[in-house]
Specification:
The complex is a heterodimer. Chain A is built from 10 helices and 31 strands. Chain A is of the alpha+beta class. Chain B folds into 3 domains: 2-99, Serine Threonine Protein Phosphatase 5, Tetratricopeptide repeat; 112-186; 189-249, Roll (SH3 type barrels). Chain B is built from 8 helices and 8 strands. In chain B, the strands form 2 sheets. A 5-stranded antiparallel β-sheet of chain B has the order 7-6-5-2-8. Chain B has a two-stranded antiparallel sheet with strand order 3-4. The radius of gyration of chain B is 24 Å and the shape is extended. The two termini of chain B are 36 Å apart. Classes of the chains: A alpha+beta, B alpha+beta.
Chain lengths: 594, 253
């Protein structure tokens, strides 16, 4: 100590002796960088000090590119007077955390002292891999981390769409800590799921193991989920604020450990569920998304009834699966039935296995007329999870018999003492078979548009012109009076001389016939008897009938010839002349007489 | 020789006719015993002899109705109505059968002159119209000639007026015969036999279905394509293509 004093004295003396230089050296400015360590782990921190022995301005730190500034800058100033000597120091401190591994250089810091700029030297820092930081077993955070676990247990992580899965949240607490209270901070929402919480009645503490160690656990929440979308779906985490009693190092006067209450937030972590779509292969057309194990039936309350009575038809699906999440198949009923909107009923309970129960549609049906009404069979398809196949159940066809039609209002006649009962007809009956028939060939020939038809249709028209022409000819004939007379006379003559003509050439027979013909003609025309034939009588009668003299004399001459011919020879030429003459005379007289 | 053949064919024809009557009675007996399926077999064997009657179709339809087979039942009632359109029993039982059908289609009512004309045209078969027409023509000619040859003015006047009235009637009935035949040709109804059938917008399986028809519904056939598709029209006027095998034509062509 003494030696030191001496030295100090010597130094002081020297300093006084070389005061100027000493003063200079004591006024020398120092500005340097100090680091707490040059080699550190990536999880460690580094303190860096920039120290100067004279106050300056405009401090400018280097860029800490590879580090994160955790704390700082903080300033500290110290003035020391030791044996009258003043030592001054000013320090800027930073706490740095490395961002990554590697060798880094911390650059120069600058400062302005007395108008001059000073710089520090760069420093090399090596950042190594993380080093293990020894844990403090009494740190409450550490204790909570080690002893309390919130776990979400998912029954199946790759279910089919619409397959029930359950999420159970369990809080595991080890034996040496205690949880006095908890509060749900964030209740998970299940987007893209149909979810239902299962009510937990009270809290039951059970014993179980977690990672091979004994724990007590509490089931906080049970949820049944039906995924409604395929793909990766996330279940949001459940976050709890729990009050934990943590043992401390301190002990009470009895030697027991003192417990400390700490609030901590624990979270179950989010879970991802991969939802598979149902296979396309073999999907029935009427599949509406039912997944599970089901029974299907269609029932009616009655099968025989009267018209206007009501009847109920029930379409019912029972079993296990997403009962609330699909539509029941619709009944297609005959249009003659009056059908009301179906009433939907569900009695479904939800437990950890999913939904189970009965879902049904009940239709109220009122037939208005009698008859038979079939309720056609309908089918229901679902995806069976056990066999991973689609299944279809088809209901039986039901026939409803309405055997009585609407009954007419009865009018009873109450005139007599014994009321008469009217016969009540119960509407129309289904008529029975017919007993008699006449069979005809299936292929019947048609009449319309056949040739026969057209002939019959058009031929009558031809009759009109024909009739008209015939008529016209007749009229022209009738119009020609003279010709008509000639024709009539000729006709008459031919008629009477027919026999005479036959015997032409045979003299006796010819003249006999000719005479007879002339007599007959006279008989017919003049109404005289054969006995009255005499020339005078004939002449008189003919003249009375206004026949001309000439023709009368010719007629008489002919008669004379007939008589003469009996006794004298007559040639064939004369016979012919007489025949022609007779024909002429007859037609002539016929024209003249009236 | 020819005479013998005639006699033989006549005898043969009368024998088969007698046989048909016998089968018909047998079918009725089976029907009455409730053996409807066997009754159907009996009735249908008559049809295979190329003879038919409204009563046969009616009994056949009744048997099918009793067996709850909607489509054939309606089919044969309609057949019976084609032969005797005003049979009240057939109309009554057809209503029963139509109760069983699922489709309810509103009829589009026809209005005005076309309904009136159709009503008249449909009163007779076109052959009947043709016969009326031909007889009117014949009467017309007779009366016209009577007018032509008659002497008294009253007779002439009467016969002239009545003959021209008859000519008008003849022309009108001829027109009706043509109309009736055209209507018959256009009217080509069919019954849907499949339980449920999609009516498509186009005659292929890809196209979307326009509507659905069910068993027993009556449709009008408009045209057919490829033999596998038929364009049909339902009573409310909607049209579409249906698979040919799903329907059965009421007329055998």
């Amino acid at each position: 100590m003494k030696f030191q004093k001496h030295i100090l004295i010597v130094v002081f003396a020297l300093s006084t002796a070389f005061g100027f230089t000493q003063n200079d050296s004591s006024n020398e400015v120092k500005f340097e960088t100090k680091v707490s360590k040059k080699k550190l782990g990536v999880n460690e921190r580094l303190r860096i000090d920039f120290e100067m022995n004279k106050d300056g301005d405009n401090f400018n730190p280097p860029g800490f590119d590879n580090f994160m500034v955790v704390g700082g800058p903080s300033q500290s100033i110290s003035n020391q007077w030791i044996n009258g000597v003043r030592s001054f120091s000013k320090t800027y401190s930073y706490f740095l955390a490395p961002k990554e591994r590697g060798n880094f250089k911390i650059g120069q810091a600058t400062i302005e002292i007395d108008g001059e700029v000073y710089k520090t030297l760069p420093v090399d820092i090596t950042v190594t891999a993380a080093v293990e930081i020894p844990k403090d077993p009494n740190d409450p955070d550490y204790i909570v981390q080690q002893n309390i676990h919130l776990v979400a247990e998912v029954s199946k992580t790759n279910p089919y769409i619409n397959e029930a899965i359950t999420v159970v949240y369990k809080l595991y607490v080890s034996d040496n800590t205690g949880v006095s209270n908890w509060r749900e901070l964030d209740v998970p929402r299940y987007n893209d799921f149909w979810s239902q919480n299962i009510d937990m009645k009270g809290v039951k503490i059970e014993n179980g193991t977690y990672n091979g160690e004994d724990y007590r656990f509490v089931v906080l929440r049970k949820t049944v989920l039906y995924p409604q979308k395929t793909g990766k779906l996330e279940i949001e985490p459940l976050t709890l604020d729990i009050t934990v009693d943590v043992p401390t190092n301190r002990r009470d006067i009895f030697g027991g450990r003192l417990m400390q209450s700490v609030h901590r937030t624990v979270s179950a972590g989010s879970r991802t569920i991969n939802v598979k779509s149902l296979p396309e292969n073999g999907r029935p057309i009427d599949f509406t998304g039912a997944v599970g194990d089901f029974n299907f039936k269609v029932t009616t309350s009655k099968q025989t009834l009267k018209a206007t009575e009501a009847l109920e038809a029930n379409v019912e699906v029972s079993g296990n699966g997403n009962l609330k999440l699909f539509k029941l198949p619709k009944l297609s009923l005959p249009s003659a039935l009056e059908v009301y909107e179906p009433e939907h009923k569900e009695s479904v309970s939800v437990n950890l296995n999913g939904m189970s129960g009965v879902s049904s549609d009940s239709y109220t049906i009122v037939p208005s007329y009698q008859g038979k009404y079939p309720i056609p069979s309908i089918s229901f398809s679902y995806f069976d999870l056990k066999t991973e196949r689609y299944k279809t159940i088809t209901s039986n066809e039901i026939v409803i018999n309405v055997d009585e039609g609407p009954i007419n209002t009865t009018n009873t006649v109450v005139n007599s003492s014994t009321p008469k009962q009217q016969i009540i007809t119960s509407g129309d009956q289904f008529a029975s078979f017919k007993t008699k028939t006449n069979f005809v060939s299936i292929k019947q020939p048609t009449f319309f548009k056949t040739n026969l038809f057209w002939t019959l249709f058009l031929a009558p028209f031809l009759a009109i012109p024909i009739a008209i022409i015939v008529r016209q000819k007749q009229e022209t004939r009738q119009g020609d009076v003279e010709g008509n007379r000639i024709r009539r006379g000729n006709k008459l003559a031919r008629k009477y001389l027919k026999e005479a003509k036959k015997t032409l050439g045979n003299k006796e027979q010819f003249y006999n016939a000719l005479e007879r013909a002339l007599h007959n003609y006279l008989k017919a025309k003049l109404n005289i008897e054969t006995s009255e034939f005499s020339k005078e009588k004939i002449q008189e009668l003919l003249q009375n009938k206004s026949a001309e003299q000439n023709s009368t004399s010719q007629f008489l001459e002919l008669l004379k010839n007939c008589e003469m011919a009996r006794y004298s020879p007559f040639s064939n030429v004369e016979m012919n002349q007489d025949y022609d003459k007779a024909a002429n005379v007859i037609s002539l007289i016929d024209r003249q007489i009236k | 020789m020819k005479k013998i053949v005639y006699i033989l064919t006549f005898l043969f024809a009368s024998v088969t006719l007698a046989q048909n009557d016998e089968t018909f009675n047998k079918g009725n007996a089976l029907y009455n015993e409730g053996k409807f399926q066997e009754a159907i077999t009996a009735y249908e064997s008559i049809l295979s002899n190329n003879v038919h009657s409204a009563e046969l179709y009616y009994n056949l339809a009744n048997s099918y109705y009793k067996l709850n087979r909607i489509a054939p039942s309606i089919f044969y009632y309609e057949k019976a109505l084609q032969i005797s359109p005003n049979d009240s029993d057939v109309i009554n039982n057809l209503a029963f059968a139509q109760n069983m059908t699922i489709d309810a289609i509103d009829n589009v009512p026809e209005v005005g002159v076309s309904k009136f004309i159709k009503g008249i045209v449909n009163t007779f078969h076109f052959d009947t119209w043709a016969i009326i027409s031909v007889s009117c023509i014949m009467l017309f000619v007779v009366l016209f000639l009577a007018y032509y040859f008659a002497y008294s003015t009253v007779k002439k006047r009467l016969s002239f007026i009545s003959s021209f009235a008859l000519l008008l009637i003849a022309m009108a009935t001829l027109f009706f015969a043509f109309q009736k035949q055209a209507l018959d040709k256009k009217d080509n109804p069919a019954i849907v036999f499949s339980q449920e059938s999609d009516v498509k917008a186009e005659p292929n399986l890809r196209s979307e279905s326009a509507f659905q028809v069910h068993e027993g519904t009556k449709v009008q056939v408009l045209e057919s394509y490829n033999g596998t598709w038929t364009k049909v029209q339902i009573a409310n006027g909607k049209t579409g293509w249906i698979a040919t095998e799903d329907i059965k034509l009421l007329k055998d062509i």
